Amino acid sequence: FGIATEENFVITTTSRKEITEDNFRELVQDGVTLYLLQSVDQMLLLATKERIDFLPHYDTLVKSGMYEYYASEGQNPLPFALAELIDNSLSATSRNTGIRSIQIKLLFDDSQGKPAVAVIDNGRGMTSKQLNNWAVYRLSKFTRQGDFESDHSGYVRPLPVPRSLNSDISYFGVGGKQAVFFVGQSARMISKPANSQDVHELVLSKEDF
């Protein structure tokens, strides 16, 4: 790596957790991305890119299709799709001590790009690992394995409450991805964890698939 003998350096996860002899087995897992830095809080000099590979669940083939999830009871599917898109914001802002802000913007200005739905919140943000897990189809946020940064361990699903904003919409890990591709052709998630200076971005598109 071209490190001089007298030069100090650290190895960290993308969440800026320093790898040590004590936590090596916990943090260094198959497929994990690591940073080689001069210090834990060093600014990144340029953008890094991480590829997500996963084997789709068989339900992707045997139960896929918008009808199965949105319209099986003859409902208008668009409100269900929009509800799915704000689910991450409900989860991210659930522990806010101050103002809980969630904005939904419909963008139709051709000069700014293609039409889009933007959901913006002031929540705690997601790490690259959490963004990675969100991308996996049929992987519920309440049962994700190997995500040592999960905020949902020990979660007990509450009883249904009318008009309750409890971020329980995507309990089965289905809706977010189907909602995206029901509304449009691609998804771009940009997130900055509250305790980190790094901004993480995830792009999913039909073109890439």
From TrEMBL:
Q: Which domain of life is it from?
A: Eukaryota
CDD domains, alphabetized: HATPase_SMCHD1-like
Gene Ontology terms: biological process: double-strand break repair
Pfam families in UniProt: HATPase_c_3
**Cited PANTHER family:** STRUCTURAL MAINTENANCE OF CHROMOSOMES FLEXIBLE HINGE DOMAIN-CONTAINING PROTEIN 1
What's the protein called, per UniProt?
SMHD1 protein
Native species: Cepphus grylle
